């Protein structure tokens, strides 16, 4: 039986999302890129994919903190490209602050982008996945979906919530050949961490590079960052037939962080 294999990866113009899109494209999966970049910037990325991979590639801009923009995004994708059978909820933001002074607007934004958007996108893709009898939903959570760190109230709440959403969706879809899993990366060197590198460097009076190593040492026994491409390879595996019975899980890829 051959199924439509077309992936939409939210927040795929940089970092982990871009690496996931590249790994899936290398496996022959059609790719829908998404992000906040302008349509013109998106087209540059589309061309780079088309030059490298023999798959269909498109780009759509939408701010997924807004449920209406998510509905509009999926309407446009359905009309201009087709149905989605692999959804990777990857877009995410961070803000660090003690809870007493945590800005309410940052709390609301992080919950909207890192958690609620995955509920809305999941609602959009399920009817087709169920109809075709094959689908994959992969939520990029974090080690912070499994354990906590100080000053990350909204991020930890959202990522723990995303793992809860993953489990419920997996249970509801288990008999329909649609698997739903969360991936929980540890430190991965992407634009998301820039503010934390700067803060560590200031607080400890170190260089930017020393700050990177310092952050790793604080949490993970493995002495390096997680490679974005390795997260992409894990997504590829979860999309394979060998992973058909893996559902409802939260898979750490964290250099041993959560083994403590
Ligand atoms: P990144 O900043 O490179 O990527 C985040 C992406 O989300 C960007 O493309 C950004 O444009 C997009 N995005 C943010 N807000 C958006 C919005 N309102 N609407 C649409 N798109 C939006 O960072 P990353 O590290 O690649 O993050 C990807 C995911 O991995 C996030 O969910 C993050 O929480 C998770 N994660 C990252 C790390 C890490 O150490 N970098 C660790 C664990 C989990």
TrEMBL record:
Enzyme kind, highest EC tier: oxidoreductase
EC numbers on record: 1.1.1.30
Pfam families reported in the protein's UniProt record: adh_short_C2
Organism superkingdom: Bacteria
MF (Gene Ontology): 3-hydroxybutyrate dehydrogenase activity
InterPro entries: 3-OHbutyrate_DH, NAD(P)-bd_dom_sf, Sc_DH/Rdtase_CS, SDR, SDR_fam
Keyword annotations: Oxidoreductase
Coiled coil: none
SUPFAM superfamilies cross-referenced by the UniProt entry: NAD(P)-binding Rossmann-fold domains
Annotated GO biological process: monocarboxylic acid metabolic process
Transmembrane segments: none
Family named by the database record: Belongs to the short-chain dehydrogenases/reductases (SDR) family.
Full protein name: D-beta-hydroxybutyrate dehydrogenase
Lineage of origin: Bacteria, Pseudomonadati, Pseudomonadota, Gammaproteobacteria, Oceanospirillales
């Amino acid at each position: 039986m051959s199924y439509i294999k077309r992936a939409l990866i939210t927040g795929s113009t940089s970092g982990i999302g871009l690496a996931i899109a590249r790994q899936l494209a290398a496996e022959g999966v059609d790719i829908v890129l998404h992000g906040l970049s302008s349509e013109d910037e998106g087209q540059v990325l589309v061309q780079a994919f088309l030059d490298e991979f023999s798959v269909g590639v498109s780009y759509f801009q939408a701010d997924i903190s807004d449920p209406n923009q998510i509905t509009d995004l999926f309407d446009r994708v359905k009309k201009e490209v087709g149905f989605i059978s692999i959804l990777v909820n990857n877009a995410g933001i961070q803000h660090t602050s003690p809870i007493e002074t945590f800005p309410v607007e940052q709390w609301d934004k992080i919950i909207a982008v890192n958690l609620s958007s995955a509920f809305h996108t999941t609602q959009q893709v399920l009817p087709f996945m169920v109809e075709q009898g094959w689908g994959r939903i992969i939520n990029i959570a974090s080690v912070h979906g499994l354990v906590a760190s100080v000053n990350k109230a909204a991020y930890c709440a959202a990522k723990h919530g995303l793992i809860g959403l993953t489990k419920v969706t997996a249970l509801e879809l288990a008999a329909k050949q649609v698997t739903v899993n969360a991936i929980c990366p540890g430190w991965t060197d992407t634009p998301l961490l820039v503010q934390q590198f700067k803060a560590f460097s200031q607080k400890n009076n170190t260089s930017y590079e020393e700050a990177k190593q310092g952050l790793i040492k604080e949490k993970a026994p493995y002495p390096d960052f997680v490679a974005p491409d390795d997260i992409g390879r894990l997504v590829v595996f979860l999309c394979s037939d060998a992973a058909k019975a893996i559902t409802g899980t939260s898979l750490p890829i964290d250099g041993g962080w959560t083994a403590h």
